[in-house]
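Page 42, continued from yesterday. The earlier attempt failed because a stray header line got pasted into the input along with the sequence. Redoing it now with the clean sequence only.
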Amino acid sequence: MTDKLILSIPFSALLVATPLPALAQEDVVGPTGPPVCDITEDVRAAHDAWRDQGRDVPLAEVVGGVDLRSGPGTTCDTTYFLPAGGTVDLVGCGAVWCGIVYGTEAGYVPKRFLGGQVDRAAPIPEW
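This time it went through. Structure tokens are written below.
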């Protein structure tokens, strides 16, 4: 006969606290965690729809040089650099990020880098 030692360890003691990666304050977290990236075509489609309807797209001025991103978060890829003083077509804004078009480039920038008609921007979802 073999003697067995059975330990009683509470389940909570087995959990190891793993810190989540730090996100910048302006990152918009998607429903499963990280920001939704690679959605510049959504911005371009909304922009084109406005133009097709004959609507004027609000304009905004870039008040500080800023990276144009592929989605609403600093972990999304940088696709272009917008110089201070540039004028962009403002497609829509959430609480923190705005979808914009600058010439042939489309993407997202933090709202705080834009001046002008930001209050006229259509609302966009916070993913």
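Notes: The radius of gyration is 22 Å.
Reminder to self: strip header lines before submitting.
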